[in-house]
Amino acid sequence: SSGRGEYQLFDERMQVQVTARLRVENDMRHALEHDKEQFCLHFQPIIESQSGDIVCLEALVRWQHPERGLLSPIEFIPMAEETGLIVPLGEWILELACQEAKRWEQLCQIQRPLDISVNLSGRQLAQADLVTTISNTLSHANIDPSRFRLGFEVTETEVMRDPATAATTLQTLRDLGAHLSIDDFGTGYSSLAYLKQFPVDTIKIDRSFITHIMDSPADQAIVSSVVYLAHALNHTVVAEGVETIAQADKLREMKVDYIQGYLFAKPQPAEQLLILINQQQGR
Ligand code: C2E
Ligand code: CA
Ligand code: CA
Ligand code: CA
Q1: By CB atoms within 10 Å of each CB, which of 64, 147, 199, 283 scores lowest?
Q2: Whether the CB of 119 sits within 6 Å of ligand 1
């Protein structure tokens, strides 16, 4: 309105960004109300570092957008968290995970229970009715717990926003039989002392500590310390983002219990993973 070129340019660029973002938000609202099938799950296995057995499948959401193609969660999860849309989206993700587990019950020969782990955002953790929603979805799905168990991943940053409430919620989820993991461990600001208050089973060491593990003595020291501490507190440890055989060997040597990363498998649709699982379980 001032008529100055630079300001106008700036305003236009801002306007473009705001409009684009608003469009994504509207598209998501529309999809959640009328076409939830646009959202689907890919699964990435977590394997036991000693045996190479698949012990868990992490559910990672994808959005098949009608115009923009397959969107990665980094393109829409932050917006969904800010707007609160993560709550209905999260409920749908949980339902999808249960549907998938139910289908696998028919299609897989499972020798021992497989965990299916779902990411929970802080907004979901703060919902007073989260536990009710989860237990309703679970009992509705009627999954055989001797074959599939649901698990949840929460980041320390989200848990630390309200540690007391989070601890209570996590304990209730655990009482339901869910396996709990602290995700992206090491990237937040949590005090190590808090660890003992959280009723979790597993600590997932963030990929940023794994990427340079081969040539960074600092990262090696951090990973060793986390493993030592986690084991002392009776937690198991997963290393995220393992991409090379050398890294896997190193982490196994460092007593990391489980590994996850492109080396073993990328996140992929269930159909492709089923083949892998049946090969393993049939052995
Ligand atoms: P995350 O939970 O830490 O998931 C791990 C991310 O690292 C995934 O990205 C995965 O594809 C990627 N990754 C796995 N192995 C490797 C590797 O070896 N190398 C590299 N470079 N990357 C690897 P993705 O699927 O794009 O998900 C990104 C983030 O979006 C997730 O990080 C999680 O925070 C969030 N997210 C994904 N699905 C959901 C969901 O269903 N609900 C919620 N609340 N958040 C989700
Ligand atoms: Ca995760
Ligand atoms: Ca993670
Ligand atoms: Ca991470």
Answers
A1: 283
A2: yes
Phi, psi angle pair for 243, to nearest 5°: -115, -20
Exposure on the CB side of residue 184, measured as CA atoms within 13 A: 13
Backbone φ/ψ region at 184: left (φ over 0), alpha (ψ -120 to 50), beta: left
Residue 14 CA to ligand 3 center (angstroms) comes to: 31
Ligand 1 atom 3 nearest Cα: 184
Q: How many CA atoms are closer than 13 Å to the CA of 166, on its beta-carbon side?
A: 27
Q: Enter the pTM of the model.
A: 0.93
Q: Is the CB of 95 under 6 A from ligand 1?
A: no
Who contacts 61 (Cβ-Cβ below 8 Å, separation ≥6)?
39, 40, 41, 42, 73, 77, 89, 93, 119
> In angstroms, what is the span from residue 60 Cα to ligand 1's centroid?
6
Residues 6 or more apart whose Cβ sits within 8 Å of residue 48: 55, 257, 258
pLDDT digits (tens, 9 = 90+) for 76-92: 999 999 999 999 999 99
Q: What spacing in Å lies between the alpha carbon of 59 and ligand 4's midpoint?
A: 14
Asked whether 41 and 97 are in contact (CB, 8 A), the reply is: yes
